[in-house]
Amino acid sequence: MKPALSIAEILDQPALVPLWPTVGKALGLAESTTYQLAAEGRLPFEVIRLGRRRSVRHVDLLAFLRLPTPDTSDAA
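-> structure tokens emitted (76 positions)
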């Protein structure tokens, strides 16, 4: 299994981050554990279902990991 994601890899994600492998690896979890916790509603953020895909908002993942969130006020 590939080791957990680096901070740079976590910061360089789209607005919706795939539950597996990105979120699971960022939290240091195995695939089965990641999906089990999501199914039980035990992850520390909302899991968004789009069809069969499960995702997490990037800003929620960053907040949980206490990483800086992108400043959107300078985007204009």
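The chain has four helices and three strands.
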